[in-house]
Design brief:
Elements: E1 2-5, E2 11-16, E3 22-26, H1 29-36, E4 39-49, E5 54-60, E6 66-74, E7 78-84, E8 88-90, E9 93-95, E10 97-99, E11 111-114, E12 117-118, E13 123-130, E14 141-144, E15 149-151, E16 156-163, E17 169-179
């Protein structure tokens, strides 16, 4: 398999069949960003989250807009919320951000933290139920949005999951993203 660039600088995979015919297959933006070393992942897991308790990721977008895709995995039912323009009293603990192309030294301008202390939550962007069962009938689930959300540069966001299962449950919050300023 050979990789080519088209006139818009998008990656193209070129394949040659047994008869020597060449064809190209377009790679989407996510796949292209991974190959370019410009796709990142971050997140944190939380154990034994008490019923009615919440866990939070602070996403501090840097100088370039973030195109992000959120995922929550939870051991029991709960509520997922995302907020824009949160007031941060203390950012919490830094969460590592990994380049999805493991041999790339590229790093994003954004940072991620878990267990921040927040004041005002700003604008609510997402308010969703995350199924997973309750008490002894908890089975767990993974919930994710299908499309990315473009987050504003130099803005703080919070991703929060609140356990509503009736028992302590484990959960994780994650974001996969790339940074791109397209105007």
């Amino acid at each position: 398999m050979t990789f080519l660039r088209d006139g818009d600088n998008r990656s193209q995979r070129a394949a040659v069949d047994a008869q020597g015919h060449v064809s190209t297959v377009d790679m989407g933006i996510i796949h292209t960003k991974i190959h370019a070393g410009e796709m990142f992942a971050s997140g944190s897991y939380f154990t034994a989250v008490a019923d009615a308790a919440a866990v939070t990721l602070l996403i501090r977008v840097g100088s370039v807009p973030m195109h992000g895709h959120f995922t929550v995995a939870n051991g029991g039912s709960g509520f997922l919320e995302a907020f824009e323009g949160v007031t941060v009293t203390a950012p919490g603990t830094t969460v590592p951000i990994y380049n999805r192309k493991r041999n790339s030294a590229n790093a994003p301008t954004s940072t991620v933290f878990h267990t921040p202390t927040l004041g005002a939550t700003g604008t609510t962007l997402i308010k969703a139920f995350t199924p997973g069962g309750s008490k002894t009938f908890a089975s767990g689930a993974i919930s994710s949005d299908f499309d990315e959300m473009v987050l504003l540069a130099n803005t703080d966001y919070a991703l929060r999951w609140t356990n509503q299962s009736g028992a302590a449950e484990d959960a994780s919050l994650a974001i996969n993203f790339y940074e791109l300023n397209i105007g």
